[in-house]
Amino acid sequence: MRYTVRLLLALLMMNVAVLHGQSFEGVVTMNISTSPEKIIMLTIKGDITMMEMQVDSAQHIKLIKDRAAETSTILRSNEEMKYGYRSRTLYGEDQHIPTINAAAHQLEMTVTEEEKYINHFRCVKALLHSPKAQAEAWITKETGLHLSGCFPNFLGEGADPDLYALRELADQEGLIMYYKESLVSGIAETVIEVTAQEKEITLDAFAIDPGYLVLDEEGIKRLYQQAQSDPLKKIQWEEFRQIFGNK
Questions:
Q1: Residue ranges of the domains in the chain?
Q2: Strand partners, 190
Q3: Under 8 Å CB-to-CB from 70, ≥6 apart: which residues?
Q4: Phi-psi region for residue 116, left (φ > 0), alpha (ψ -120 to 50) or beta?
Q5: More confident position, 73 or 8
Q6: Residue 189 reports pLDDT greater than 90
Q7: What's the CA gap between 190 and 206, in Å, rounded?
Q8: Closest CA relative to residue 227, chosen from 246, 241, 243, 245
Q9: Longest C-alpha distance within the chain, in Å?
Q10: Helix (H) or strand (E) holding 121
Q11: So what's the pLDDT on residue 37?
Q12: Which one-letter DSSP state was computed for residue 167?
């Protein structure tokens, strides 16, 4: 049986990180569902990155990180409601540090001589295994990126420890473009597929739709105070709370 991995989307949105100083400029997508609307897309240009995700037919989420301005802006829309929250916290800036000792966990990875091009990037095939799990990965070094840097939850929230360990080992080699894993004792396979397209991205791609009401901490406080006496502000406050909750 074959399954396509499903990750914790909400957590991913708060933890996305990209290797600072990388030279890749373009778009990276990760297929986490058989449905096209579940594909998560990361747009990269210099110190600005944007994670974009369609949760369902009505909900859309963007996370724009601007390292030069040291801000993170989360945009959420649900049908006609469009609100944003801007923070001075650059979520997920700490790079992932491997936690697994390969030798102690009897992990082995063999980088084979097999090569193929995926999205114009030269990839090599790696075979990984432990006493309890096995995996196949196609990895490229040409982008200067790592999958955990683009999509931190690739490593898995609550994943089997052996599967987590193999993912972490493969992730150190470069950007994983294709990954297939399974437990030795099971028949189910998890398949992760990534596409990367290097191209020039204009700053217009990161522009915020003027239809969004974007608030920072002070803006939230003002809106709450205004909502006590202004019916229109009360509607906006209730909508903001409906979309963001406690952020």
A1: 2-94+200-244, 108-195
A2: 3, 181
A3: 88, 90
A4: beta
A5: 73
A6: no
A7: 33
A8: 241
A9: 70
A10: strand 121-129
A11: 56
A12: H
Residue type, 21: G
Give me 193's structure tokens: 């597929």
Q: pTM for the whole thing?
A: 0.79
d(CA 242, CA 80): 13
104-156, pLDDT tens digit by residue? Answer: 778 999 999 999 999 999 999 999 999 999 999 999 999 989 998 888 878 87
Phi, psi of 59 (to 5 degrees): -105, 135
What pLDDT does residue 9 have?
Answer: 37
- Which CB contacts under 8 angstroms, 24+ apart, belong to 79-84? 81/239, 81/242, 81/243, 82/209, 82/211, 82/212, 82/213, 83/212, 83/213, 83/214, 83/215, 83/239, 83/240, 83/243, 83/244, 84/208, 84/212, 84/213, 84/214, 84/215
Asked if 61 contacts 52 with a C-beta cutoff of 8 angstroms, the reply is yes
State how far Cα 129 lies from the chain centre: 25
- Counting residues of the chain whose pLDDT is more than 90, the rounded percentage is 58
